[in-house]
Structures are given as C-alpha cells and as structure tokens.
Design a protein that fits this description.
about 25% helix; alpha+beta; globular; 6-stranded mixed β-sheet; 4-stranded antiparallel β-sheet; 3 helices; 10 strands
C-alpha cells in the first residue's frame, strides 16, 4: 500500500510542471513531507501546494487578496501563510502534541513550498499522527498526501476529503 501511495504521489506531483499556472488544473492535491532529523532532534516539514489554490484559500479565509508571487507582498503574505498553516496542520508524536514553528515559504513555478520545523523531537518515534485539512475550506475533492520518514522508514498516507487524520506506526 505504501509503495502504491508513493507512486501515486510521485505521478501526481510530476504532472505539476505540465500544468500551465494560468489554467485550471483538473485535480487538487497537496503534499506534506516530514523528515525526522535525529542528529538535530527536529522534524523538518515541507508542504507543497498549487499556488493558485493556496492563494484562493487564503483569500477566502482571510477576506483579502492573496498574492504569493509578488516580492513586495512577501512579508504580509508570510503572516497569512503562517496563520493558515497554524490553523490547518497539527502533529502528535508518541501521544504528545508538538509545537510547530513556521520558517517561511517560497513560490516556485506553479507550487508554493511552506517550511516548518518541530524542535526537540524524540530520538525514537513510535507513533505519529498528522492532522490536516489544508485547502478543505476550498475544495471537496482535495487530496493531501502525507509522507513521514524516520530512522530509514518512510510511511505514506493519502487523505481524501473529508479525511483529515493520518496515523503512522514505526
């Protein structure tokens, strides 16, 4: 199952460059990558979303125009992106709710990458629960793929709207 989800996620994500950023794409997908850095005792998190979808969600939720591309607006958009991710993503590790630190975002081609980090991560992760409803406030066909890597093991979960909880045992 994990291999099929990984291949599905790779296939969908490889399609991103084929989609013109000015056109409407036929699917709504986000990818959350979590990597356990044992040396630094951190969880490094990267969220990848279509730029136009993410701008639409930010505009809808915060009732103002969102522009994640314009360099002059980057600081004000940083605040919105941080608020949105804080409200739509949480994580428990070994039964403990973790504090997620927002590091920033960057826009590249048709995607936005949001970078987050959890400090003081345990050296041994036995169970992780990722709760996310990214872009659910915009699309009822949203798919979020969660990939979590710890100690040379990678677990993947596909969340189809309205499912919002991914549980992984290591």
């Amino acid at each position: 199952m994990q291999t099929a989800l990984t291949l599905f996620g790779w296939f969908l994500w490889r399609l991103f460059p084929l989609v013109d950023s000015q056109s409407v794409h036929p699917f709504h997908v986000g990818v959350i990558e979590v990597n356990h850095n044992i040396t630094e005792a951190t969880l490094e998190i990267q969220c990848k979303l279509f730029t136009d979808d993410f701008e639409d969600a930010l505009s809808k939720v915060y009732k103002r125009k969102a522009d994640l591309i314009a360099p002059a607006l980057h600081a004000s958009m940083d605040t919105l992106v941080n608020q949105y991710l804080n409200a739509h993503l949480s994580m428990q590790v070994n039964g403990k709710l973790m504090s997620i630190n927002y590091l920033g975002f960057e826009q590249e081609r048709e995607a936005v990458y949001v970078y987050l980090e959890i400090e003081n991560a345990p050296s041994l992760i036995e169970r992780a629960i990722v709760t996310t409803n990214l872009l659910f406030d915009l699309y009822d066909d949203q798919v979020n793929l969660i990939h979590f890597s710890s100690r040379n093991t990678r677990k993947s979960v596909k969340l189809d709207y309205p499912a919002s909880v991914a549980q992984m045992e290591f």
